[in-house]
Amino acid sequence: MNFLNYEQAKNAINWHEAVNAIRQGHLLPRAHLHDVLIGPAEAMLLNRTARIEGLGYGVKVESVFNENASKGLPNTHGAVLAYSPENGVLRGVIDSHIITDFKTAADSVLGASLLARPESNHLVIIGAGRVAKNLAQAYSALFTELKKISIWARQIEQAKKLVDELKLLSLPAQVATNLPDTLATADIVSSATMAKQPVVLGKWIRAGTHVDLIGAFTADMREADDELMARAQLYVDNLETTKNVGELSIPMNVGMIPADHVLGDLYDLVAKGQFNTVQGHGITVFKNGGGAHLDLMIADCVLKKLGL
């Protein structure tokens, strides 16, 4: 068994390899998934498990303490365990931060590569935390036409700090102060917040825009309003892991969108090779729900790349 901490694994793969690992993983049979979430909303333990035929078993155990940031600590701590499909041997235990970093952004970018216009050149990121930084790097690696990355956050100082970090990486980042005006020229919008009230409104999104929603993961969380969800061609990364997230369940429960409004998930999109589905004439929304199957795909990629 191998234990890999963050420093040992952080440079094991690049963004192209991470996105391809998730793409290839969705050509395998659908994953069997099971999640357990316990504890109060501000201090939860999340246990996500998956089995993928051909890849084996994966388990991610992670604490989520929302107040840690104010104490100078990461909000999450945990590990991903990957087991062999042949004999159940524990192949590796990997710091969950590196797996989540790659998994979350690569999941969204794969969705965008199948739904957004390839010539997209303006990316708007809502949020300025760790996920936002990874999104900027991942999108820049896969969308080579990007010329501008706008960062908007409720606390403008956080947006300024992230923009400075991205400029050091030679990425074309700038602070956005007026979100509606910034979204009016966006080609891709990627939202990574902990919002429980919509921050992305349908009236702000123009035709041809792809919207990537990441933050919500519980029944009371959402980043997009009913209008956007109703207008858009809606896809999710996994039908099972997203069905109870507020992003979908809230507008469904009030009758704003029908139960069959979701057109498919990554298994469907990857199988069809469905690029640029709206050809610039509509809005696409991709709900990134995460899941242990994605963690397993990335963990397998990391372990193989390191020869483990």
CATH homologous superfamily annotation of the largest domain: NAD(P)-binding Rossmann-like Domain
Oligomer: single chain
CATH architecture identity of the largest domain: 3-Layer(aba) Sandwich
- In spatial order, strands of the major sheet run 9-8-7-10-11-13-12
Strand residue content: 15-25%
What does this structure look like?
The protein is an alpha/beta fold. The chain has 2 domains: 2-100 and 293-305, ornithine cyclodeaminase, domain 1; 104-290, Rossmann fold (3-Layer(aba) Sandwich), CATH 3.40.50. The protein contains 11 helices and 13 strands. The protein has helices at residues 6-9, 15-25, 96-115, 130-142, 156-168, 179-183, 226-231, 239-242, 246-253, 266-272, 292-305; strands at residues 2-4, 32-38, 43-52, 56-65, 76-83, 90-95, 122-126, 148-152, 173-175, 188-191, 210-213, 233-236, 284-287. It has a 7-stranded parallel β-sheet with strand order 9-8-7-10-11-13-12. Strand 3 (43-52) and strand 4 (56-65) form a beta hairpin.
